[in-house]
Design a protein that fits this description.
The protein has 8 helices and 18 strands. By secondary structure, the chain is α+β, with helices and mostly antiparallel strands. It folds into 3 domains: 69 residues, Uridine Diphospho-n-acetylenolpyruvylglucosamine Reductase, domain 2; 148 residues, 2-Layer Sandwich (Uridine Diphospho-n-acetylenolpyruvylglucosamine Reductase, domain 3), CATH 3.30.465.10; 116 residues, Uridine Diphospho-n-acetylenolpyruvylglucosamine Reductase, domain 1, CATH 3.90.78. The strands form 6 sheets. A 5-stranded antiparallel beta sheet has the order 6-7-12-10-11. Strands 1-2-5-3 form a 4-stranded mixed beta sheet, covered by helices on one side. It has a 3-stranded antiparallel beta sheet with strand order 13-15-14. It is globular and about 60 Å long. Bound molecules: uridine-diphosphate-2(N-acetylglucosaminyl) butyric acid. The site of uridine-diphosphate-2(N-acetylglucosaminyl) butyric acid has 20 residues, from α7. GO terms for molecular function: FAD binding; UDP-N-acetylmuramate dehydrogenase activity.
Length: 353
């Protein structure tokens, strides 16, 4: 094989947390065939396999990974009319910039999200009113069960909030390519759906704005929350949101609401967003904040971001254990305060909360 291969390779530099021990072996694949060959070889020999894209949603244990780490470094942005095809290893922010330049709407509010294109369908990446599930038409993946390349149409991806079939069956699919249908709205964005973005743009919800303006506004909002990567800024040595926003049934929400009143006083309304029939999404960031973990919380090498309570950060000298200790403290504190158990969003390797 002419793919790049390293033994006892450090993985921390491949993650945005800059945490975790080495892998027994690290393979970097730059074509779909190289990806498939490496996966087949690992599967044939029964070697554990860890897929690494942009490393922006990964928490790797201090002991590292015993097995083959496969870095997906395929590249390719193909635009034909309003159809977009991205290689899994393509840098997501580059892809967004290209579509905005080409005057196409649909993913402009996902600007500034770190990571690779192939990772976006796995947790149905979303921000500022857009989710990739609205524009993905199909995902080309290698199916480790049937050992074949398959095309999974959107309807079979089982997309929901930060979830998909690929996340539900984690050992099965290796994403190779993601295809999107964008919209030609004569240089305008998709209708603005997020209240915060609409406010910043000075428009009403549902209005359209020039694409570049939508992208830049999102980048500014994200930067203000420490959610745009910057090697100099420790607030961005994170995995973005560390916890998903809890989705509660009506019954659970009523119990939660009573708990909020008891703790914070009558008239305090927790964030509540409709999340389908009989379900309400509340804000993990708010819960964390109101449980006493305010921005910048912590005195050790792992602390809460100074710009957003949902991001746990490595201040430079942390270990994965430091990070997990902080995460566990937050989960326990929020549970004690509000009876809600937060669930981590990043994938953990060799460790758990
Ligand atoms: N809030 C606080 N304290 C904070 C920050 C926020 O109390 O420090 C409360 C406020 O009440 C605010 C609410 O939390 O109104 C929601 O905050 P924000 O609009 O920042 O959204 P979020 O729910 O915290 C989600 C995504 C982000 C995405 C933003 C914008 C999840 C887990 N996170 O964050 O995605 O960028 O919305 O759409 O769904 C990510 O997944 O890694 C990520 C960064």
């Amino acid at each position: 094989m002419h793919v790049q291969e390293l033994q006892d390779a450090p993985l921390a530099p491949l993650t945005t947390f800059r945490l975790g021990g080495p892998a027994t072996r690290l393979i970097t694949a730059t074509t779909d065939d190289e990806v498939i060959a490496a996966v087949r070889e690992a599967d044939d020999s029964g070697t554990p396999l860890l897929l690494i894209g942009g490393g922006s949603n990964l928490v790797i244990g201090d002991k590292g990974f015993e097995g083959t780490a496969l870095r997906i470094a395929t590249r390719g942005i193909a635009l034909e009319g309003t159809a977009l095809e991205l290689a899994a290893g393509e840098v997501w922010t580059d892809a967004v910039a290209r579509t905005v330049e080409a005057g196409l709407a649909g993913i402009e509010c996902l600007a500034g999200i770190p990571g690779s294109a192939g990772a976006t369908p796995i947790q149905n990446v979303g921000a500022y009113g857009q989710e990739v599930s609205s524009t993905i038409t199909e995902v080309v993946a290698y199916d480790r069960r049937t050992r074949e390349t398959v095309v999974v149409p959107n309807a079979d991806c089982a997309f929901s909030y930060r979830h998909s079939r690929f996340k539900a069956e984690p050992e099965r699919f290796v994403v190779l390519r993601v295809r999107f249908a964008l919209e030609d709205a004569s240089g305008l964005s998709a209708p603005v759906r997020y209240a915060e973005t609409a406010r910043a743009l000075g428009v009403g919800p549902g209005d359209r704005v020039p694409l570049a303006e939508a992208r830049e506004t999102v980048l500014e909002l994200r930067s203000g929350k420490g959610m745009v990567l910057d090697a100099e800024d420790h607030d961005t040595w994170s995995a973005g949101s560390f916890f998903t926003n809890p989705i509660l049934t009506d019954e659970e929400f009523a119990v939660f609401y009573a708990r909020v009143a008891e703790r914070l006083g009558e008239g305090v309304n927790p964030p509540a967003y409709p999340a389908g029939e009989g379900r309400t999404k509340t804000s993990a960031a708010w819960l964390i904040d109101k449980s006493g973990f305010t921005k910048g919380y912590g005195t050790g090498p792992a602390r809460i971001s100074t710009k957003h309570t949902l991001a746990l950060t490595n201040r430079g000298a942390a270990t994965t254990e430091d990070l997990l200790a902080l995460a566990r403290e937050v989960v326990a504190g929020v549970h004690a305060a509000f009876g809600i158990t937060l669930v981590n969003e990043p994938v953990t390797v060799g460790v758990s909360l």
